[in-house]
Amino acid sequence: MSTQRRDRQGDLDDKGDLAISSDKLVALKDAIATHVGDGDSVVLGAALENAIPFAANHELIRQGRRGLTLIAPISDMSTDLLIGAGCVAQVTGAWVGSVSGGLGHNYRRAAETGTPHPIRINDHSNFALGMALFAGAYGLPYVPIKSVLGSGIVASNPAIKLTENPFAEETEPVALVPPLKPDVAILVAQRADRQGNCHIWGSTGVSQESAVAADRVIVLTEEIVAPEVIASDPGRVLFPGFLVNAVCQVVAGCHPAPLTGYWQRDNAFFNDYHEASREAEGFDRWCDEWVREVADHDGYRAKLGERLENLRIHGQALSEPANWAAE
Asked: Is 304 within the bounds of a domain?
């Protein structure tokens, strides 16, 4: 990582060295206020259908962010929600909607009629988006892929360039996908220490690529643990803590999305949202009830009440211990 990037993250101490041990535990509203500005590009839903940081979405709406570019591999209703709330100027992704309901109604309205305002769509396939984040993470000028050839994506996204494979003996077209380097990646972890080191397991999607490619990283975690707990299993650490700007303990911060080992997916909640957002007026009523008129995530959890507790995972499917000894 470049010195310039670390300086932007505030990870240098007074001597110019990495401040790896700094305490980064803050409230979610403060993390959003400090690290996400109007016009930023933000990764949401990097773990695909799992571990979507909905609590951060809600806070973005409450704080009135505008002009965001959402980079959304698979974000269920997350991106649709922010579009309907007027927070979004651009969407970089493959689709927007609910995996159990279909295409997002706010996304469709914004694309077709400019309601609540027009959005720009930077079209990708899921694979192309993953490769763009991979390129951003590893400093590549582009990644060549073939999966979008013959699709309408190349025509709809002028940033993807066509060329010929220079190593092929015969004509072989390839598509060049440029890198994505988001301003902010907001990710969910099962547990983290106060310095930003965290354990993530289950579906991780492109969480690692997003964290390394992004200029700033916010982690929402179920539990705060001692650094020794994280160090005991480095295989679950996808990115180092010095890349993280803020750690926020937000229990059930992914609701209604699932989180491996902690929370089941709230299918009914997704379906209720999809039905309520079918019309713009219905979306506004839903957003008022569940986001705008709820002070914070604690209030959201209280509103969910027993419904949330019924989603808690009580079963155990433990992994075998791993021996990390060197001698």
From this structure: yes
